[in-house]
Amino acid sequence: MFVDSHCHADFPELGAREQEVLAAMAANDVGQAICVGVRLEDFPRLRALVDRHPEYWASVGVHPDNTGCEEPDVARLCELADDDRVVAIGETGLDYHWHRDAPEWQRARFRTHIRAAKACGKPLIVHTRDAAADTLRILQEEDAAACGGVMHCFTESRQVAEAALALGFYISFSGIVTFRNAVALKEVAAWVPLDRLLIETDSPYLAPVPHRGKTNEPAWVRHVAEELAILRGVPLTVIAQATTDNFFRLFRHAHHV
Questions:
Q1: Cα torsion at 135, 246, 162, 179 (round to 10°)?
Q2: Counting C-beta atoms within 10 Å of the first and last residue's C-beta, which end of the chain has fewer, N or C?
Q3: Predicted pLDDT of residue 257
Q4: Does any domain span residue 257?
Q5: Domain for residue 114, yes or no?
């Protein structure tokens, strides 16, 4: 079985095809997925989807790109995370690609999520783009090792991966690792310890080869696993078993269904 550790199945592109998406997951042996929260205003929609389908788990958080939305505090995040179907806090982190001035509000929001994860005992889902140094610095300053988590949709260097691993974090690869020009990333993916490896789609974005350019979906996490098996020179079953075991080890409030 494969597990998609990061998708947005509640987004309109996938939500309009709810049953079709689930059927495709089953056909590709994708047993479960986390529907990752990006705005508190959208959490009721996400939570309702998770209620309807035991294949899905939820996280709660506010994406670093989102402005003009409800701002989280520790109490609010912990309130929403006090739920058997919520297995993580996030996604959170820093994005200096879209916010080039590196605003302090973004860093403060990141710290809020880390503190909430520690308070409620659930791991973090971390987004970082053009902000690796500050992301790692804040994780270290806030003792994020106490809650653990995952660097999702990893596109950074081996040195960044080493620093994240030192904090006890997992590294998750998306469809980007299947792209022909992702040479450096492929090298990192071949190196990350097997017991810290996760796979994801980040759907509806970043569809892997051979579906690049299409609307991504959780079923296609299988292609990410296939690429990792090739890069590491191991059978696909090894990647499937390891990433599934890692998923349940990190997201310990989730369970097989």
A1: -80
A2: C
A3: 79
A4: no
A5: yes
Residue 39 buriedness (CB in 10 A; 0-12 / 13-18 / 19+): middle
Determine the angle formed by the axes of helices 158-166 and 183-191, rounding to 10 degrees.
30
Provide the CATH number for the domain around residue 71.
Answer: 3.20.20.140
* 216: Cα within 13 Å, side-chain hemisphere: 25
Bridge partners, 127 (sequence order): 93
**Bond preceding residue 218 cis, omega within 30 of 0:** no
Look at the alpha carbons of 201, 146, 97, 190 in this order and tell me if their dihedral is positive or negative: negative
Number of domains in the chain: 1
Domain limits at 116? 2-250
Question: In the predicted model, what is the mean pLDDT of residues 134-153?
Answer: 98
* The pLDDT value given to residue 16: 96
Task: Count CA atoms within 13 Å of residue 177 on its CB side.
Answer: 35
Q: Specify whether the CB–CB gap between 34 and 87 falls below 8 A.
A: yes
Enter the tokens of residue 42.
Answer: 């959208």
Are 60 and 40 in contact by the 8 Å Cβ rule? The answer is yes
**Where does the pLDDT of residue 101 fall: very low under 50, low under 70, confident under 90, or very high at 90 and above?**
confident
Strand 197-199 and strand 56-60: the pairing is: unpaired
CB 69 within 8 A of CB 107: no
Burial 84-93 (b: 16+ CB within 10 A, else e): eebbbbbbbb
Query: Rounded to whole angstroms, how far apart are CA atoms 224 and 200?
Result: 7
Name the one residue in this structure whose structure tokens are 């929001």: 109
> 126 forms bridges with which residues in the sheet?
92, 151
Residue 234 forms part of a structural domain: yes
